[in-house]
Amino acid sequence: CGNSCDAYRRVVQPWFGLRIGSLQAQKLGTRVELHNSFPGAHGIYVERVFDGSPAANSGTKVGDVITKLDEVPLFSAQEFHNLVLDKTESTMQHCDVMPFEVSVLRPGNSFDFCATINAEVIDMSKQNRWPVPKTKWLYPDNKYDDERSLV
After folding, report:
1. Burial 31-49 (b: 16+ CB within 10 A, else e)
2. How far apart are CA 108 and CA 60, in angstroms?
3. Which end of the chain is more exposed for a tag (fewer CB within 10 A), N or C?
4. Global pTM?
5. Where does the PDZ domain start and stop, copy by copy (predicted)?
6. Dist. CA 64–CA 46, nearest whole Å
7. Per-residue pLDDT tens for 56-69?
């Protein structure tokens, strides 16, 4: 993250549109279902996929288990984030998407498949700016209609 800021004068962060978690942190019922479908499976659990996101467009669904990212086996969410940041720093180009190859297990299918998630690049330099932008507060009688800082 720091290297991309130094090299490109901006913080570059790919967006997948996923919320992921550790397999070991999932509810017992989920873990039993995964174990019955894929004994000895490892990877990260997809807890949420945002509509219209790169992950949703690739066919990734809630309940999937991502076992590999660009052919590297995954065992924790932290590994996933580290690999994403490493690839971002090593292949940074001025483009809007970054392709990531993932291997996915889907409970109930009893086989794994590969998908490409074309992560969108988010330029964090325009986020969290100071001072806080002004907003207009609207009240039904409009007697307090003034600009105040949003805090």
Report:
1. eeebeebbeeeebbbbeeb
2. 14
3. C
4. 0.70
5. 17-74
6. 5
7. 999 999 999 999 99
